[in-house]
Design goal:
Distance between the termini: 80 Å
Radius of gyration: 27 Å
Number of strands: 18
Strand order of the largest sheet: 2-1-3-4-6-5
Largest sheet: 6 strands, parallel
């Protein structure tokens, strides 16, 4: 037997930790390069090389962006993503993403390397107090011991990994789906892997918002020499009867790890690490709620976290049809993928008016919608408020009357006995009628562009009347006049995007004007797309990186953003090269990963960015396509819609803050193909051309900085 060394013990310890993370569902790791974190980074890398189906590793040198990249992966997949960083300020750069993960309920596992105890508080370089660095913003914190190679040490490393996954997923993570409307029964022995055994083509929202997930932090003190000895650790593993160092100390319970592994050949379910319950209401609780709803006009407010797949969205809609409940559907709810009359997609416009049908009861699934007008409307009306959530009310309107501690799906899958009666059906009909009329107003943005193209002249000005060719089946109210056709601005581009975006792809939205444009112009159409955004803090920090992270779980992603958001996270474009590496570009493998151009005559000259992208386009398992649609108004146009708006000099200096950035040059610097467009037709051509293009591409739409409130007014009247 070989002699154990510090480097061997370290390898055994970190290998067991990462193996257990993967056994409990982790599939993505993002590494921020550093010295002190060598053992953690190399363990993740080594495992990804040996078992590429179990773990993918991405490298991002910008720690702030790296954390948001991992956040996006976890948001899209529902699985915890792992972050690895060195000691010192690296950990602090993760802070914004940790706070977003906390408030967005995204499972994130932060692994920070640290100096050993004997170097703390003595002025050692790159050393600070990292214990509980994130305070109460994480679901749990664990100070790890110095790595050891004894059986007890290995067992502890594995248990720490299990605890990290459980804390990140939250206490309701084992709450199973129960029987669906399609009678797709799940076994009571389903493991966590089932949460991510999905067909991405039917995903319609984030997979990480329904449960009380969040970030966790583990701090690893590591001593020099820092490089783990995996070779010697493999030899040590043989004496433990394990196939390699990653298998040392692994429990023998069979675990379903990937799609297709959930059952043995004889059809028996494989036991997994997480067992679930249905989360459905008792008959007594159902009776109490049904009594509260009786003869009281009721609507359902559906925000982020209500459902994840098209099938789940259809279950909510089927339940609503039984009761005749209008479903006020936030763009992040997943319900706008359904073309159902009860899905109210223009609720933001309707809630602005005093004639809006007033409910006596509101049931809320998920967080409050994007629409401020809706929150203000409910604050005025003050109906009986029933909040359905696994952990907390998230009720800034301070109006919760009844709290139901389950998921929205657990709620609708309970055994209900009632159904919508005359009062409720009439109430629903009012909402449907008003929503259909508002739909015409939104569709006018398309007709304004079509009319201009047909006439081959400038677009009609606000106040002009145009004929509106509407999609087949669009309900038309005789009392609804054709609205004025404004100039083609934000809405026209968003409508064109939504028309062309492929079914089953991801649409990630920035905050500020981007998500408001989506809320206004995204009409239900029966096309399933997964719509996501960072609404925990509603900020511009790291959103591009988050979108790129989410894109790793889709073949096609579109990122809708403004210029402030893109500029704030411009470094994320550097992930272009990392995406090509991770998805196995043969060019990068052949030429050692160097993409830089070389002088003519070099026999083994590295390929250019265009060469790499061209090779990826023809490769099996090519890199995902990520199209950034930049609505560039050269500043903070959203402030034009807020109380700060003014013609005084302070407004432009402090709030509009134009930056005059050449985004085409920035795209070139990061090997990102780009196009600048000046019309909707040019946009359609550019967008169609970039769809399916491997890696990141950019379309810049130039818009006016001032007047955004006036541009939206015709569609929000």
């Amino acid at each position: 037997m070989t002699t154990s060394t510090h480097q061997t013990d370290t390898a055994l310890f970190v290998a067991a930790f990462f193996d257990e993370l993967c056994r409990w569902g982790v599939r993505d790791a993002v590494i921020s390069p550093g010295s002190r974190s060598t053992a953690l980074a190399m363990a993740a890398y080594e495992l990804s090389r040996r078992r590429p189906d179990d773990l993918r590793v991405f490298v991002d040198i910008d720690e702030r962006g790296a954390a948001f990249l991992a956040l996006g992966m976890a948001k899209a997949s529902g699985r915890p993503a792992v972050l690895v960083c060195t000691s010192g300020t690296a950990l602090a750069n993760y802070y914004p993403a940790v706070i977003e993960a906390e408030t967005s309920r995204v499972p994130l596992i932060v692994l920070s390397a640290d100096r050993p105890p004997q170097l703390q508080g003595l002025g050692a370089p790159q050393t600070t107090d990292q214990l509980k660095a994130y305070g109460d913003h994480v679901r749990s914190f664990r100070a790890m011991p110095l790595p050891g190679g004894r059986d007890r040490d290995i067992a502890f490393a594995r248990q720490a990994a299990r605890e990290a996954v459980l804390s990140a997923l939250g206490p309701s993570a084992t709450m199973g789906s129960g029987p669906s409307a399609a009678s797709a029964l799940r076994s009571g022995l389903d493991d966590f892997a089932a949460l991510a055994n999905y067909d991405a083509s039917v995903q319609v929202a984030s997979r990480a918002s329904a449960h009380f997930a969040g970030p966790v932090h583990l701090n690893f003190p590591l001593e020099a020499p820092l490089k783990p000895d995996f070779g010697n650790a493999d030899i040590q593993a043989a004496f433990h009867g394990a196939r390699d160092c990653f298998a040392v100390g692994a429990r023998s319970v069979p675990v379903a790890r990937r799609k297709g592994d959930a059952e043995e050949a004889d059809g028996r379910p494989v036991l997994g690490p997480l067992l679930g319950s249905t989360g459905q209401l008792s008959s007594a609780h159902v009776a109490v709620i049904e009594e509260a709803l009786r003869k009281r006009p009721t609507l359902v407010l559906v925000g982020e976290g209500a459902c994840e797949t098209l099938a789940e969205a259809e279950e909510i809609a089927a339940w609503a049809r039984r009761w005749s409940f209008p479903l006020l559907a936030d763009p992040l709810s997943g319900l706008r993928s359904l073309d159902d009359p009860l899905v109210i997609d223009n609720y933001d416009n309707l809630c602005r008016h005093g004639s809006c049908p007033r409910p006596e009861v509101v049931i809320r699934f998920g967080r409050y919608p994007v629409s401020k007008a809706t929150a203000a409307f409910l604050e005025r009306v003050r109906p009986l408020s029933i909040v359905v959530d696994v952990a907390e009310t998230r009720d800034f309107n301070v109006s919760t009357d009844v709290f139901v501690g389950t998921t929205p799906l657990g709620f609708v899958r309970s055994v209900w006995h009632g159904e919508g009666r005359k009062v409720q059906r009439a109430f629903a009909a009012e909402w449907v009628r008003a929503n259909d009329e508002a739909r015409l107003r939104i569709l006018a943005v398309e007709s304004s562009v079509a009319s201009a193209l047909a006439a081959d002249e400038s677009l009609p000005l606000p106040g002009d009347t145009v004929a509106m060719p509407l999609p087949a089946g669009t309900p038309v109210s005789p009392a609804t006049p054709a609205p004025a056709a404004p100039e083609p601005v934000e809405g026209a581009y968003v409508r064109a995007l939504l028309e062309l975006i492929p079914e089953g792809s991801c649409l990630f939205s920035a905050n500020s004007m981007a998500v408001r444009a989506l809320d206004t112009f995204y009409l239900k159409d029966g096309k399933p797309i997964a719509v996501m955004a960072n609404r925990g803090q509603n900020g511009i920090d790291g959103v591009t990186s988050t979108a790129i992270g989410a894109a790793q779980h889709f073949g096609q992603t579109t990122f809708l953003t403004g210029d402030f958001t893109l500029l704030h996270d411009l470094n994320a474009l550097a992930l272009q090269r990392e995406i090509l590496i991770e998805h196995g570009s043969a060019a990068l493998g052949t030429y050692g990963g160097d993409c830089l151009a070389t002088e003519a005559g070099d026999e083994e000259a590295p390929l250019s960015a265009d060469d790499l992208l061209e090779e990826e386009a023809g490769a099996e398992g090519a890199a995902p396509s990520i199209v950034i649609v930049l609505l560039n108004n050269n500043g903070g146009a959203i402030f034009d819609m807020l109380p700060q708006a003014s013609d005084d000099p302070y407004f432009e200096r402090l709030f509009l803050a134009p930056q005059d950035v050449d985004f085409q040059a920035a795209a070139d610097a990061f090997m990102v193909p780009s196009a600048r467009v000046g019309s909707v037709e040019e946009f359609r051509e550019a967008y169609a051309g970039f769809l399916g293009h491997p890696g990141i591409s950019l379309i810049e739409v130039q818009l006016p900085l001032r007047g955004v409130k006036d541009r939206y007014a015709p569609y929000q009247a």
